[in-house]
Amino acid sequence: MAEQHFDVLIVGAGLSGVGAAWRLQHDVPHKSFAILEARDAIGGTWDLFRYPGVRSDSDMYTLGYAFKPWIRPKAIADGPSIRDYVRETARENGIDQRILFQHRAKHAAWSSETARWTVDVEVGPERRPAQLSANFLIMGAGYYRYDRGYLPDFPGFDRYEGIKVHPQFWPEDLDYTGKKVVVIGSGATAVTLVPAMAQAAGHVTMLQRSPTYVVSMPAIDPFAAWVHKRLPAKLAYELVRFKKIVLNIVMFHRTRKYPEQAKKFLLDMVRKELPNYDVETHFTPRYNPWDQRLCLVPDSDLFQAIRSGKADVVTGEIETFTSDGIKLKSGEVVPADIVVTATGLELQFIGGVEIEVDGEPVKMSERMYYKGMMFSGVPNLVSLFGYTNASFTLKVDLTCEYVTRMLKYMDRKGYQIATPKPDPTVKPAPWIDLKSGYVERSRHLLPQQGDRKPWRLYQNYALDLLTLRFGRLNDGVLAFSKAGALAKPLHGAPSTPPVAMPVETRVPEPA
Fold it and tell me: Diameter of the chain by CA atoms?
């Protein structure tokens, strides 16, 4: 069997992984690479989630790739359209031929002696063990577990005799026509499900413990539609993208600087949508805007469902499930034929891959995040993670561009290793400053950021653009070296990359 070695291995064939592959092909075409995809399809999140109405809560002019214009009418796109966009990008650029499907990365061991990662994978449904090696790893597997969603320990949950569904694992044959549906949650998934299900259900109740800021915007951007009628597609896309980026930066910083004004503005918008509704109880959060992500609804669909009487919002804490519904601590009982637990994600950093450096296991929660992409003391590993206050892909695009700059620099200088040097004088801080439940539950698993650059995450595209596109690579923190220069004993690990099992590279037909 031939050895499976690559210059770069990418983990994940979703929006981020395909974007990283395009950047490698475009900027460093001489580099060999492959994508490890645990599932059997391209698309990541946008292939996994199949619940009614699934869509992005970011506009596609910034969630889309910088190199591939989004030309469909809707700026707030549905999940299948985004999945098709990612697959089309992979197919057009031959990236689909570089994907190793049903290859689940489990463990990655770095050797400074050979300047290589050895990656243990499980192949196929039977999960056969195999190994591949690479000089560089790019982790693009997202930030949550694909095999499990978050479900609180609800009292009496097993007592409920109706249908229980988690959005992450939506049954294809679920018929909710005419049914009483309760959607537990108040986040992006819940505000998407309620209006979508209300079209066929008898009634839908969004049951929330506390409210979230909800903002309506047109599904079809009027400015984008106007520009696309007058300019070539690529130029129009770039112009709309630029406008969206600038507007988002300005709005975010004004919101953070003047939270009370922003709060009033957002709630006044809701009051116009629901003039006779208890906005104070059901749509006024306990926190300031952008302490958690805002929930976006296209064309006021959630508010329309409420105004029509097909949906409503109930705010309160669950005391217990009953056989046919949910009893709240207030004493109110909410009947339900179907309960949808839109209760969130279970975070999983770097795809759950265990990391080892020169024979020593690495605990990511003890590492500091360098420029929002690499980790203190961990060589040749990049994690793709986007913004929490803007489209995910914006930061991913900049990160991938930085990676290829770094690879070309290392080739010119004869280096094989790039390692962010730990700095004991930098004060640690939480990696993500959001107060969302899924973040709070997982802080013990996440790396830290620092109190100053290059360890500080500014969540600002303009600053990152200057830093990642034009900033110095050899900044005194990112240390470059040659193979063997930083080697430690490998505790019996093999000194040469192991031989991989044969792998399947066929791309499945779109679902």
Answer: 71
Contacts of residue 422, defined as CB under 8 A and 6 or more positions apart, other chains included, come to 368, 376, 377
CA dist., res. 248 & res. 190, Å (int): 24
Q: What angle do CA 315, 178, 274 make, to 5 degrees?
A: 40
CA distance 109 to 359: 7
SS3 category, 192: helix
Helix axes 259-273, 233-257, angle to 10 degrees: 110
Backbone angles phi and psi of 354, in degrees to 5:
-80, 135
Distances (CA, A) of 354 to 43, 351, 359, 446, 511: 23, 9, 12, 13, 31
pTM of the model: 0.89
pLDDT in tens, 118-144: 999 999 999 999 999 999 999 999 888
- What is the spatial distance between Cα 95 and Cα 14, in angstroms, rounded to a whole number? 12
- Phi then psi for residue 167, to 5 deg, are -55, -30
Going by C-beta distance under 8 Å and a sequence separation of 6 or more, which residues neighbour residue 476?
A: none
How far is 180 from 35, CA to CA, in rounded Å? 43
Q: Over the stretch 388-424, which tens digit does the pLDDT of each residue have?
A: 888 889 999 999 999 999 999 999 999 999 999 999 8
Query: Three-state DSSP class for 208?
Result: strand
Contact at 8 Å (CB) between 466 and 383?
no
Q: What is the pLDDT of residues 141-170, one digit of tens each?
A: 988 888 888 899 999 999 999 999 999 999
Q: Is the link from the previous residue into 454 a cis peptide, with omega within 30 of 0?
A: yes
How far is the C-alpha of 34 from the C-alpha of 317, rounded, in Å?
A: 48
Q: List Cβ neighbours of 78 (8 Å cut-off, separation of 6 or more).
A: 53, 54, 55
- Calculate mean pLDDT across residues 487-507: 34
State the Cα–Cα distance between residues 409 and 443, nearest whole angstrom. 34
| Opening angle at CA 408, ends 407 and 410, nearest 5 | 65
- Domains of the chain, CATH where assigned: 5-146+347-481 (3.50.50.60), 151-343 (3.50.50.60)
CA atoms of 28 and 13, how far apart (whole Å): 19
Confidence of residue 509 (pLDDT cuts 50, 70, 90): very low
Angle between helix 15-27 and helix 392-413 axes, rounded to 10 deg: 30
Give the mean pLDDT of 478-497: 55
Bridge partners for 180 per DSSP: 203
Q: What are 264's two structure tokens?
A: 């009033």
| Structure-token match 């539950």, residue found | 441
For position 488, what pLDDT does the model report? 43
Neighbours of 50 (CB within 10 A): 17
